[in-house]
Amino acid sequence: MEFRDIEIFLALAEELHFGRTAERLHVTPSRVSHVIKKAERRIGGPLFERTSRTVSLTPLGERLRDGLQPAHVQIQQAVDRAVAEARGITGTLTIGYTTPWCADLALQAAEVFRDRYADCTVRIQEIQFHDPYGPLRRGELDLQIAEVPAPVPGVTDGPVLFREPRALMVPADHPLAARDTVSLEDLAEAPMIKPRGEVPKILMDLHLPAHTPMGSPVPAGPTFSFWAEVPALVAAGLGVSVVACRAARFHSRPGIAFVPFQDGPTLDYGVLWPATGQTPSALAYVDLLVDLAYKPGDD
C-alpha cells in the first residue's frame, strides 16, 4: 500500500464514514472507495462491513489498523520535523481567543501542533471585548481567533472557522424568555449590556446595536469589562446580551435563558493576524485550525 492509501484507510477506520473521510482528506468519496477496494483485493479479504447506513471495521480491518497506525504516526512525525526545520517553525507562537469555543479549538490545535513541531511552543490567552484588537496590533499576539470581520487598520481577516446563529441571553423571568424566537426589533424591549472601552462602532452596530433595524432605540444597560460579568448581570435582571446560540452550552446558569433570533446575520468567528504578515509557524497553525474547525462532529 502506498502512503496516501494507508492514510485514507486509517482515516476511514477512524471516521467510519466515506463522506467525512473524503472531506477530511480533501478527496472525493469515490477516491476513498477505490482505495479501499484496491487494498481489499491486494490483501484478499474485506476490511470494512458496509451497509446503506453504517460502516464498520472487520476483524481483519481492525488488525490492519492496529498494525499500521504506530508506523504511520512515526512517519508523519518524521516528515513534520523535517518540514518544521526547513520552514523555521520554531520559537513561541502566541494565540488569542475571545470565546470558550474559540479557546477549545485553539487548545485542540495547539496539542496537535506541539506533537508535530516540537521546537515551537504555543501560548494561549483570552482577549477581552473592551480591547478586542489591541494585543494583536501591539504585537503581543501572532494570531487571534475571534469575531470577524475586523474593521480596524493593522489587522487582516483570515479564514472563517465558525458561522454561528445568534441568540438573546435574557433574564429567566423576562417576557422574552417565554418566546420560541425573538427578532431584532425585540431589542427595544430590554436594556442592552455593553462593554466598557473603545470598541469600534462598526463592531458595536453588528453585535450590540443602539437601534433596531426599524430605528427604535435599544435601551442602554450596565457595562462590563470582562465577559464573566455578563451572565451575572443578566441573571440579576439588569439587561440582555446578544450571543451565539452555542453560548448556552458554556454559560447556562440559574436565572438566565437563551432565545434564538429568527432574523439577522450569523456571528462569524475566524482567524485574525497582523497586517504585516504571518510567520511560517502561524501559517502552519492556521492550516490546523481550518482542518479541525470543519471536522464533522466538532459542534
TrEMBL record:
<dbReference type="GO" id="GO:0003700">
    <property type="term" value="F:DNA-binding transcription factor activity"/>
</dbReference>
<dbReference type="Pfam" id="PF03466">
    <property type="entry name" value="LysR_substrate"/>
</dbReference>
<dbReference type="Pfam" id="PF00126">
    <property type="entry name" value="HTH_1"/>
</dbReference>
<protein>
    <submittedName>
        <fullName>LysR family transcriptional regulator</fullName>
    </submittedName>
</protein>
<keyword id="KW-0805">Transcription regulation</keyword>
<keyword id="KW-0804">Transcription</keyword>
<dbReference type="InterPro" id="IPR036390">
    <property type="entry name" value="WH_DNA-bd_sf"/>
</dbReference>
<dbReference type="GO" id="GO:0032993">
    <property type="term" value="C:protein-DNA complex"/>
</dbReference>
<feature type="domain" description="HTH lysR-type">
    <location>
        <begin position="1"/>
        <end position="58"/>
    </location>
</feature>
<dbReference type="InterPro" id="IPR000847">
    <property type="entry name" value="LysR_HTH_N"/>
</dbReference>
<dbReference type="InterPro" id="IPR005119">
    <property type="entry name" value="LysR_subst-bd"/>
</dbReference>
<dbReference type="InterPro" id="IPR036388">
    <property type="entry name" value="WH-like_DNA-bd_sf"/>
</dbReference>
<keyword id="KW-0238">DNA-binding</keyword>
<comment type="similarity">
    <text>Belongs to the LysR transcriptional regulatory family.</text>
</comment>
<dbReference type="GO" id="GO:0003677">
    <property type="term" value="F:DNA binding"/>
</dbReference>
